[in-house]
């Protein structure tokens, strides 16, 4: 009679993590039950607990930065206690490289960590941003509509110019426009080990200021065994991907070498939105007794047909969701075949980690990025005077305008150094001192390739050229101190920016301009450990952010855009049980002089912005994951927010070019939905197999800051299905087959857009463009590991 009761009994395993030398507790250590893939972290007293465990054998592993990992086996048939005493490691780990710019397990800030397992599961060939789509407050979009080519992300309504992105602690945001173009690094995910996404101002980091979020990426780390791997994918709209990975494992106890080659092609869903993408990743490392030296060389080439203007709203509403205006030649329906964007980007990184003493470690990096490329486009009836070309007289007729093809080039260099010192005198204190100096040199020049009318200009006629230089210096210090059940957090950053660019002077002449900015970004917070597995936290942070290139070059000293200021208040609760993890985070982001999107794009698809005195974002983020039964789990996120602009003035122009002013007392910030939610229900019918039902809901968004329903994106709800199965045969370590079916119900939705309102006949006329996304489509994948 007792057998059913004993079979269903559930037990707990608890213990304490301490330092072998001092006996101090180690808060923030990671404890994992390996055969259940369950993890938790130790609290301020170094304690941990797993609950609701069935009887059986378990393998429990503990890891902590700068300490040797340890693993123990335990048979559980009652509530059990298992302590771990960790010894400081004499080998420096590569975690030090990114640890300086990351939030720790109990930091008083909102963040999400993605492991290599999480990344590999979703790495089917779509843009890098899709790996992050199920994290809180995130909206991802694709210009071509099928996830390949130009893709983009917004977190809490903040676009990539406000999202700080680093790879191994090195910034990859464009120094001038501050955007992030993962299309230049296709298939980067295949060389990534882990990712941390921080929402809000986050911790101090290098490069462009985090003004809405930061994404910290760590690439390939040490693998001791040799390997060879192939990843392939094929699917709708002619999408094909091939990836080859090779690694030597640890040679002679000191050296490793890793490499990757990737090739991808897609026709795209939108007309003439095809992509040809190539990338590579090479890495070599030396592991000494107290040091690690790693060299990374990686880069990519992209050719994408231009789809960055979207589809006219009227076309979408009339059923032509794929229509692309770019490259239009004439009324016969001809389009210019080489309406493309072409760009090469190559990265060189030298990373060095040194364990100076058992208490002090150093991490530094030298980096260089080389980028060059152009986009080519057909222009209808442009004025020759706009290109510095004198009108010509042919047969007594003055030719003042003509159709032409032009190329706009960008040729740039970005280089610098980053460093940090990490000091841990005890399990109570964690102190980091770090910083960086980076320099950017950009050359912008433009050529005319062809004109329909004879203009007497030479082939490849260069009609404009200008240069830009930007220096970026920052220094930061951060400390976490454990006082009983309380963690105290402090962070201070100083940042100086110098920028030289071609812009308008007070007489509206184009001359070289100089701007210097100094920013102080303090942060403070507190975390209180409520129980062994839960805590509450609160933090306040100040962040400052410089205007981008377009903001500067389109202004003069009289109307120079102001730097933006953010005061970010975060507060929340986190809990991690053996079968359940959850968090709730509240935020209030108060902006001063925020540069908000007007909703319009310039002629290369870049957003046009203007300063406003006051605006704010306030909301609640929820995330959780529950194991409903052994084979069934459910993960979900939800963000409810209000995002407001105060006293917004919009200037529109009538058919005569005269300005018409509109004033709005309080409206919604553009591209900021009030609700974003996601859900992933996964079921494992058999070992090594998974079926996942993935959902995403995004409420209505406005295309400008007027809260006008005539200039809005409708809400959408889209569902995907992901199937994975892994097995092995003799000679092959793993064979993984997968199928991703996107938008299984063929929802007709648009995830992004732009608007160009004007005044005609005394009334506002709206010209909206939507980025229509593809109906049901699929990607089948194959993984082979040797």
TrEMBL record:
Cellular localization per UniProt: Cell outer membrane
Membrane topology qualifier: Multi-pass membrane protein
Predominant subcellular localization, coarse grouping: membrane
All residue ranges annotated as the TonB-dependent receptor-like beta-barrel domain in the record: 296-744
InterPro entries: Beta-barrel_TonB (IPR000531), Beta-barrel_TonB_sf (IPR036942), CarboxyPept-like_regulatory (IPR008969), Plug_dom (IPR012910), Plug_dom_sf (IPR037066), TonB-dep_rcpt-like (IPR039426)
Pfam families: CarbopepD_reg_2, Plug, TonB_dep_Rec_b-barrel
Top-rank taxon: Bacteria
Keywords in alphabetical order: Cell outer membrane, Ion transport, Iron, Iron transport, Membrane, Receptor, Signal, TonB box, Transmembrane, Transmembrane beta strand, Transport
Domain TonB-dependent receptor plug: 106-213
Family: Belongs to the TonB-dependent receptor family.
Protein name, per record: TonB-dependent receptor
């Amino acid at each position: 009679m007792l057998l059913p009761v004993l079979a269903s009994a559930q037990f707990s395993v608890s213990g304490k993590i301490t330092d072998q030398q001092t006996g101090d507790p180690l808060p923030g250590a990671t404890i994992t039950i390996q055969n259940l893939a369950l993890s938790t972290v130790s609290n301020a007293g170094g304690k941990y607990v797993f609950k609701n465990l069935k009887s059986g054998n378990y393998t429990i592993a503990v890891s902590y930065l700068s300490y040797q990992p340890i693993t123990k086996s335990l048979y559980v048939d009652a509530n059990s206690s298992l302590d771990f005493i960790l010894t400081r490691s004499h080998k420096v780990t590569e975690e030090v490289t990114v640890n300086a710019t990351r939030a720790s397990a109990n930091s008083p800030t909102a963040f999400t960590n993605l492991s290599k397992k999480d990344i590999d599961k979703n790495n089917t060939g779509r843009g890098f941003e899709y790996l992050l789509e199920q994290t809180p407050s995130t909206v991802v979009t694709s210009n071509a509509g099928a996830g390949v080519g130009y893709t983009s992300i917004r977190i809490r309504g903040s676009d990539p110019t406000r999202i700080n992105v680093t790879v191994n602690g090195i910034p990859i945001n464009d120094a001038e426009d501050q955007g992030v173009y993962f299309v230049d690094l296709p298939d980067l995910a295949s060389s990534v080990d882990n990712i941390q996404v921080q929402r809000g101002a986050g911790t101090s980091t290098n490069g462009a200021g985090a003004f809405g979020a930061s994404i910290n990426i760590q690439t390939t780390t040490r693998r001791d065994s040799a390997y060879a791997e192939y990843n392939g994918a094929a699917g709708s709209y002619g999408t094909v991907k091939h990836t080859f990975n090779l690694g030597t494992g640890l040679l002679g106890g000191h050296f490793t070498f890793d490499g990757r080659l990737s090739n991808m092609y897609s026709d795209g869903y939108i007309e003439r939105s095809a992509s040809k993408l190539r990338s590579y990743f090479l890495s070599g490392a030396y592991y000494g007794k107290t040091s690690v030296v790693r060299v990374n060389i990686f880069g990519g080439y992209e050719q994408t047909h231009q789809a960055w203007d979207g589809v006219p709203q009227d076309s979408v509403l009339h059923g032509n969701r794929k229509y692309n205006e770019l490259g239009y030649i004439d009324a016969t329906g001809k389009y210019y075949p080489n309406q493309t964007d072409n760009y090469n980007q190559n990265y060189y990184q030298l990373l060095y980690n040194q364990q100076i003493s058992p208490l002090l470690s150093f991490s530094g990096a030298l980096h260089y990025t080389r980028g060059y490329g152009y986009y080519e486009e057909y222009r209808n009836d442009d004025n020759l005077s706009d290109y510095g070309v004198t009108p010509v007289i042919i047969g007594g007729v003055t030719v003042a305008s003509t159709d032409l093809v032009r190329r706009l080039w960008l040729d740039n260099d970005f280089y610098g150094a980053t460093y940090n010192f990490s000091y841990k005198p005890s399990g109570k204190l964690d102190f980091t001192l770090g910083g960086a100096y980076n320099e950017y040199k950009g050359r912008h020049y433009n050529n005319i390739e062809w004109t329909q009318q004879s203009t007497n200009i030479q082939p490849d006629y260069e009609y404009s050229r200008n240069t830009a230089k930007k220096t970026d210096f920052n220094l930061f210090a951060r400390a976490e101190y454990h006082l009983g059940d309380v963690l105290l957090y402090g962070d201070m950053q100083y940042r100086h920016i110098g920028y030289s660019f071609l812009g308008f002077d007070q007489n509206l002449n184009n001359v070289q301009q100089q701007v210097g900015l100094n920013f102080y970004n303090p942060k403070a917070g507190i975390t209180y450990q409520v129980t062994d597995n839960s805590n509450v936290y609160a933090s306040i942070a100040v962040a400052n952010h410089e205007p981008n290139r377009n903001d500067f070059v389109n202004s003069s000293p009289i109307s120079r855009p102001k730097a933006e200021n953010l005061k970010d208040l975060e507060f929340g609760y986190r809990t991690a049980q053996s079968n359940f993890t959850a968090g709730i985070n509240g935020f209030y982001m108060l902006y001063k002089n925020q540069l908000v999107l007007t909703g319009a794009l310039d002629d290369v698809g870049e957003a046009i912005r203007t300063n406003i005195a006051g605006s704010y974002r306030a909301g609640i983020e929820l995330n959780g994951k529950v194991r409903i039964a052994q084979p069934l789990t459910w993960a979900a996120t939800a963000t409810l927010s209000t995002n407001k602009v105060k006293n917004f003035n919009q200037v529109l122009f009538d058919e005569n070019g005269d300005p018409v002013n509109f004033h709005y007392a309080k409206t919604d910030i553009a591209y900021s939905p009030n609700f974003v939610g996601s859900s992933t229900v996964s079921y494992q019918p058999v070992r090594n197999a998974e079926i996942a039902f993935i959902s995403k809901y995004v409420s209505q968004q406005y295309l400008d800051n007027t809260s006008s329903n005539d200039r809005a994106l409708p809400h959408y709800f889209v569902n995907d299905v992901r199937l994975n199965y892994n097995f092995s045969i003799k000679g092959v370590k793993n064979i993984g087959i997968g199928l991703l079916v996107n938008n299984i119900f063929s929802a007709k939705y648009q995830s992004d857009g732009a608007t160009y309102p004007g005044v005609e006949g005394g009334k506002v006329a709206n010209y909206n463009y939507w980025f229509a996304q593809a109906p049901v489509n699929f990607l089948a994948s194959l993984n082979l590991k040797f």
